[in-house]
């Protein structure tokens, strides 16, 4: 088969790779129906995260089970399934606490931009959909694998509740789906921080009530103005830089909640500053597996259409174009079809 | 009157200071019944926090109201009262959210090691006790003003619940009262990190179930062993250094809660490390005012005796000896009587 391999900054190749086989008895092999490029793929693509040699890429996926190992009980060949970017046995203490993305058997999926994928811990990682998604549902089902699950975690970790005021830092696909999630959780006011017209439009469609185009201190000042000087109850940090993190912390009220869901790059938080900000801080790799059953339901019932974040669809072999379009912010998120 | 003034490292003087008067109509003047030295007083005493000239000291207090300003309605002369180290109007949005220590009218009390004290925002800051505390109750009532309120916040902010496993980093008075608080909140297992025999004894008396004498990575390893490799549900960080903060973060399970309640000194948290630790983090100046009614009840009813943290009582004029005893760790906490 052929799949995506990152060789270095701005150098993604679509090239021959071995078709995966069952290795562990708990594995499954999936025939990918759709995959995509993640915002986090752009860190190494831009050279901001070191590579250890040529690296197969991709961790968002859904598709049909081709084959399962002999220890797999729940997942069956022929099922249409979605899985998290982090594998989990879904039975260890961390999984039982709802932190499947810190499962003792966690592995990070990293070869999903390909026609076939080996998924370890298949029984704990994969969730079957009720029937095969229609072509219209496919993009939205794909989002549950990471980008929606991560946006949902951002809202959950920031304690979004009915009636609260929420600010979202970052207008990438995760931020946009954080808005959709906050809306689903009943937030009264959702302030999107965005300076790109097409993203503002989607933010409003997903449930944002206000747009702030300023960044940094000016953006924080605008949020303070909008909340009578109090600050937001919940702030979702969906970028991962020092500036965005401080922007999020400063936009929250004392006692408010700040979540951060992308791997921070170059972020250092000063203890004293955090202390006097008086906020709750929670983040990490999103426990997507916990949310998958609910998110699949919401998509299949038509309650939400998170697949709208895909504003470009390409055949998998054009994966290099997909990276380029996202890097240059010509696309919010690119769906790839094998 | 004479009160404590810090001139520089290890230089506390008991000297003439102006007796305080009502300045704002919302002020009260208190005749101090008991005050004490706080662990946080030791940072500037040790030269680890810069001074801006000679600085009157003290922020833990209880006593009898001498006089109130003309706008004070609830607090009356003659009442025995306790107040927080942070003043609050108890009506602003932050106060209503339970974060009185970030009140829009917050001032930090800093002249309480003296016979008289001016307390701004008297109606919002002070809470009368039901009758005058007995000599036996006085020390315990004094703790509600800061050290117990802060230990209680540490347990609350770390989400201590019935049945949980709690670790406490730091065996100073705040850490010890964090243990007492966790016990009151129903924690099943409370692991005290302490290497001092007298403090271990008090920790066990306050409700600790286990003692860990190792620090740093070795201490974390011991906690991991004791929790079957899972980590603690809640960790109370009651020191404020880089080492203690990392120790706390590493001792918590993914999805666990870490609180920090002393002003961090020289603490820098790496975003990526925090992300993969997957913990909740919350701290700041303890909203003591929120807890005062409950804590006063617990003390006056005899349910708790937090005053046991005072292992030395001195007349106020010996305040320099009090600082010395705490600096040299000869005393856990020193009560001062005017």
Automatic annotation (TrEMBL), chains A, B:
Needed co-factor(s): Zn(2+)
Pfam families reported in the protein's UniProt record: ADH_N, ADH_zinc_N
CDD domains: FDH_like_ADH3
Enoyl reductase (ER) domain location: 8-336
Keywords: Metal-binding, Oxidoreductase, Zinc
Claim: Oxidoreductase is one of the keywords in the record: yes
Keyword NADP: no
Domain of life, per lineage: Bacteria
Family statement drawn from the similarity comment of this UniProt entry: Belongs to the zinc-containing alcohol dehydrogenase family.
Name recorded for this polypeptide: Zinc-dependent alcohol dehydrogenase family protein
